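User: Sequence in, structure out. Go.
Assistant: Echoing your sequence, followed by the structure tokens.
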Amino acid sequence: MAKNVKVLLGVCGGVAAYKAAELLRELQRQGAEVRVVMTRAAKEFVQPLTFESLSGHRVFADLWVTGEAADRSSEIEHIAQGQWADVLVIAPATAHTMAKLAHGMADDFLSAAYLACTKPVVIAPSMNVNMWEHAATRANVLALKERGHVVVEPENGYLACGMTGGGRFAEIETIVRAVMGCVEQREDLVGETVLITAGGTREPIDPVRFLGNRSSGKMGFALAAAARRRGARVVMIAAATTAAEPAGCEIVRVETAAEMQEAVLSRLDEATVVIKAAAVADFHVREVATEKMQRSGAVTLELEATEDIVRSVVERRRAGTLVIAFAAEMGSDVARAREKLRRKGADAIVLNDISRAGIGFDADRNAVMFLTGDGLVEIGEAAKGDVAERILDEVFGLRMRGVLGVDVGGVVAG
């Protein structure tokens, strides 16, 4: 993070409020000056003195300040602090606070400062899984994303309420990276049109059944969000997904491998970079039943291979268009992945070991290898948003190597 960045940190009332102290310290280690705003509920979990001691500044909590504090300044404080900040970070953000922000309500210091702030906003929600998945919360999150704010999605895991699921406060490193992305404003993909595929295709068996896989689309959507932040125009070709759609991207929905191939090829001439992150079925049913199949003993399905979309893209791409393939493997078989890279003719392939617990399909974290002809860059386990940034660093390196004829960003010439 650049030095002298001013961060206004809003802390809401939830069990994760204590983690905001750790977030504050990490932001300071990155060179930021941090001031803290607490909601009334937040003070029930953490005392303001904690944040005052760590930040070196008075904590802002009340719209109506009286006594000596009011005498010290003639500023309208919620406006002054909202304008002081280079970035407003709300972490943890509760469902209640996000509802107020989404609807423009300003009945406390934090929500009023939010309306006065014209700089980037980063929101890191934390709450019970049912609250996070409620339609009202999802609508509010979508509204905030469409407003251009960065929402650091909560992770899946064991929650303070005893339930397990989405709603767990994101890792501190993930939130800090999102803040850094806002203040550093990397624009190395300006002028690029990045076509990304995401999700898992579904191959019909009959009118109600299909062959599918466990892909959530999280990795592809993380790549899309990161590319958009870095200035690219993003076209998403998305099959079945469970992740929240990234804001600011054109999204084309498909279902089968054949539909995905058609959609990709129809938009290929627009693309300067193609990233094939979708989990595309390797087989489809030769003859799909026209009516629902009845249970009457064993059933035999005759399968035939689907077309290799990456290979089709490589054969039809314009000169200069980069093609990045993905290989989901049970284990880190580099030789096998490199053979896939050679066979498909792509510029690079991302090897994803889906046999490891907690990463890969339908997980919030990942660990991959980025392979070129004879180069290999390991991207260690991290949140998928962080992995997406690292992958794009390598893609940018490939682009610069093509333009300048030199190695950039850790990519080994191959």
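User: And one key feature?
Assistant: DSSP finds 14 helices and 19 strands in the chain.
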